[in-house]
UniProtKB/TrEMBL annotation:
Matches recorded under InterPro entries: CheY-like_superfamily, OmpR/PhoB-type_DNA-bd, RppA, Sig_transdc_resp-reg_C-effctor, Sig_transdc_resp-reg_receiver, WalR-like, WH-like_DNA-bd_sf
Natural source organism: Phormidium pseudopriestleyi FRX01
Residues annotated with 4-aspartylphosphate modification: 58
UniProt keywords, alphabetically: DNA-binding, Phosphoprotein
Organism classification: Bacteria, Bacillati, Cyanobacteriota, Cyanophyceae, Oscillatoriophycideae
Domain OmpR/PhoB-type: 131-234
NCBIfam families: resp_reg_RppA
Protein name (record): Response regulator transcription factor
Transmembrane segments annotated in the record for this chain: none
Family annotation (CDD domains): REC_OmpR_CusR-like (cd19935), trans_reg_C (cd00383)
Pfam families in UniProt: Response_reg (PF00072), Trans_reg_C (PF00486)
All residue ranges annotated as the Response regulatory domain in the record: 2-123
Length: 234
C-alpha cells in the first residue's frame, strides 16, 4: 500500500516514513501542504489512478494547512482515508478536523505503535481496504504476516515468505487480476514519487517474484504481455 505523508517536522517525518516502510508501506513524503496537494494533483493531470491508499496530514503545515488540504481533497470527490496529526487536543479542534473531512485524529506526541494501529483501523473501515487478506484461486496473501499461502490439491498449504517489494508487487497484481498492468503503473504504485529507479527495476523484481512462485508450481501465473505490461492470470 502507498501512503501520502504530509509533515513539515524533519525528525518526525523521517521517523514516520521509516516506521511505515518497515511495515511494507510505500511512502511519498511532502514537506508542506502545497507540495502534498501537488502530489495528489500530479496523478490527476496524468489521468491515471491515484496510487495512494491512505494519507497522513499534519494540521499545522507551511503554505497550506492540513485542514485546507483535507477540504480540497474532499471537494475533489476523493474518499482517500486521512489521519490527521496535531498538537491541538480540544474538543472544538477535533470536531473541526473531522468536519473538514479527516477520518481519524492523532494528538502529538504519540507512539509509532499507536500510529500503525490507527492506520490498520482506517483500513478495516474502508470498503476497499477492509480485508486483511487477498485470495485469488489457490493463493492467499496475508497482510498480518506478509506471507503468501499456496494451497495444494491435498488441502495442505505452503507458506512463502516475501520481501517488502515482492509483497507489494504481488498485492497490486492480485488486486487487478486479468488486467494488463503497465510498467509505469507499477512504478507509480510501488516507488516514491520523484525517485529514479533503474530502467529494469520492475523487470528485475518481477523475475524474483516469478522465481518464488515457480518453486511452488505457479510458473505461469504472471504473464508478460509484450509491449504492454504484465497480467496476473487467476
Amino acid at each position: 500500500m502507498k501512503v501520502l505523508l504530509v509533515e513539515d517536522e524533519p525528525d518526525l517525518g523521517a521517523a514516520i516514513k521509516r516506521t511505515l516502510e518497515r511495515e511494507a508501506y510505500v511512502v511519498d513524503w511532502a514537506k508542506d501542504g502545497r507540495e502534498g496537494y501537488e502530489y495528489i494533483e500530479s496523478y490527476r493531470w496524468q489521468t491515471v489512478e491515484t496510487p495512494y491508499t491512505l494519507a497522513i496530514f499534519d494540521w499545522l503545515l507551511p503554505a497550506l494547512s492540513g485542514i485546507e488540504l483535507c477540504k480540497r481533497l474532499r471537494a475533489s470527490g476523493s474518499a482517500l482515508p486521512v489521519l490527521m496529526l496535531t498538537a491541538k487536543d480540544s474538543m472544538e479542534d477535533k470536531v473541526a478536523g473531522l468536519d473538514a473531512g479527516a477520518d481519524d485524529y492523532l494528538v502529538k506526541p504519540f507512539g509509532m505503535a499507536e500510529l500503525l494501529a490507527r492506520l490498520r483501523a482506517l483500513q478495516r473501515r474502508s470498503p476497499q481496504l477492509k480485508s486483511q487478506q487477498i485470495q485469488v484461486g489457490n493463493l492467499t496473501l496475508d497482510y498480518g504476516t506478509r506471507t503468501l499461502y499456496c494451497y495444494q490439491e491435498t488441502g495442505e498449504s505452503v507458506a512463502i515468505s516475501m520481501t517488502n517489494k515482492e509483497f507489494q508487487l504481488l498485492e497490486y497484481l492480485m488486486r487487478h487480476p486479468q488486467q494488463i498492468i503497465t510498467r509505469d503503473r507499477i512504478l507509480d504504485r510501488l516507488w516514491e514519487l520523484g525517485s529514479e529507479p533503474g530502467s529494469n527495476v520492475v523487470a528485475a523484481q518481477m523475475r524474483l517474484l516469478r522465481r518464488k512462485l515457480a518453486e511452488q508450481g505457479y510458473d505461469r501465473l504472471i504473464e508478460t504481455v509484450y509491449g504492454l505490461g504484465y497480467r496476473f492470470k487467476a
